[in-house]
């Protein structure tokens, strides 16, 4: 089902080659910032930008980079891009950049990015690298948004800051019936468990993904 | 041969149906199954899984019944209807029908929800995976109502039970495969998810919360003591447990706390029963008590040598006489019924000593240094559950090394 040549570079990471659930990369940010859906989305967009541009840049430079110092070069590329993201966030979305705090800077160490630079961009042309970059970023974003959705809904009773379940203090909506927010959902262990449940569902639907 | 034969025939007829495990579970609960093994010679012990589980449940029943009386007593005491128990264990003001009825009204729903939801999840997984329903939940389902506060909303308990059974047990492969004690996992989930219902001074006594509001609104302020002894010690109050009567009350269990864990006396009887029937490991129980006593002694020593003063926020719990730790909070209950869980504990005898000792040691450590979690035994057991396989590994390796050395010395 190829829409165009190499379209599988985008579709694979969404499903059976997902960077988080299958390659198990980039877990730390998936745990740290998914307590709110908005933060998950912004983080996804930031990673999308860094991955897309970074993969193309590394791919363009791949024949010039001496292999002994390639990690340093890759780090410089990703660090530059992350600083751009960080400054843009600080300029236009200051509150959010405070919520994400250090985790924007930590995109530099996100294993997905370095992993794709190493595994893909160094060996492929710019167009294919671009597709691979945004494909993996979409795969990352998909999981982040699913986790963020459930954590914010069950943990705070809101979605994107909107009180979809009612107000817990005025006891409106479901809170009138004794419902309470699940504080555990806001803690990092529950993010890990949520990712684990996604992995469980994915692998029980497709047993070929189960490793020994 | 009325019912029994009919059941057997019914089973023969429905052999290939998907929901047979569900029927099997009820059937074997009532009767011995009619299947026999055909080949080979077998020696079959009478103490199968079901017998083991039932023994533990029998050991838990006194705690459950006591819990019902205690829930009622604490409720009536808190609203000022009766005075504090002043006699011994058989004080007439405690063992009244009035107390029992309130307790049963509050606690039986907890038991029903715990069993209903837990067994339902087990049935779903059994039918889905095509295996028999295992007896593992029988004990968990009884433990859960005993370790939660009496006023916990039933839907919270249900959510926690689903979480604990699915993620604590079924994902690892069901009964006997779990790493963590499912009952404690359920409690830990409640503890972190709904902390306002699991800690503080208002949750342990039925009706304490509305009572506090009444007083705030101007009702006459009679007795209201909703706090557990551990809770007030963590607030640095030291006046608890200084009279002999209060000590005996704590030992008999006439104190606020989770449903079934207050009576150290009944837990002791349960422990003797478990040890005598060889279901619970006396090594774990003894070493956990020793661990707690040593940690308590260390803290007492720190206080006695005046390294910390009364202004320290740890003073209240640090200065608690070391052996009082055994009677307050859920320590005794956790050590006797949870730490000895044969699946999650260490398997080797030497490992059991280490495992138990560290549980007691860490439980008191968490109690003292983490006032946000006044009860350390839950976290201590969960932590050691994780380490139990590691302990076993090193015990076995140590044994292998020792024997290899001995062999070498012999052959050389």
Structure characterization notes:
The complex is a heterodimer of chains A (212) and B (412). Chain A has one domain (10-153, 187-199). Helices cover 60% and strands 0% of the residues of chain A. Chain A is mostly helical and 212 residues long. Chain A has helices at residues 8-11, 27-32, 37-61, 70-92, 94-100, 102-105, 111-119, 126-156, 188-205. Chain B is mainly alpha-helical and 412 residues long. Chain B has two domains: 17-34 and 47-215, no CATH class; 280-407, no CATH class. Helix content of chain B is 62%, strand content 0%. In chain B, helix 4 (97-129) runs antiparallel to helix 5 (136-146), helix 4 packs parallel to helix 6 (154-168) and helix 16 runs antiparallel to helix 17 (377-411). At the A-B interface, helix 9 of A face helix 6, helix 7 and helix 8 of B.
Mean pLDDT of chain B: 81
Radius of gyration of chain B: 24 Å
Structural class of chain A: mainly alpha
User: Would you report the number of β strands of chain A?
Assistant: 0
Number of domains of chain A: 1
Shape of chain A: globular
Entry summary:
Helix content of chain A is 60%, strand content 0%.
Offer a few descriptive terms.
heterodimer, A: 212 residues, mainly alpha, 9 helices, 60% helix, globular, B: 412 residues, 2 domains
List the helices and strands and how they pair.
The complex is a heterodimer of chains A (212) and B (412).
Chain A: H1 8-11, H2 27-32, H3 37-61, H4 70-92, H5 94-100, H6 102-105, H7 111-119, H8 126-156, H9 188-205
Helix pairs in contact in A: 3-4, 3-8, 4-5, 4-7, 8-9
Chain B: H1 3-13, H2 20-30, H3 49-78, H4 97-129, H5 136-146, H6 154-168, H7 182-193, H8 195-198, H9 208-216, H10 229-234, H11 244-252, H12 264-276, H13 282-304, H14 315-318, H15 331-338, H16 349-369, H17 377-411
Helix pairs in contact in B: 3-4, 3-5, 3-12, 4-5, 4-6, 5-7, 6-7, 7-17, 12-15, 13-16, 16-17
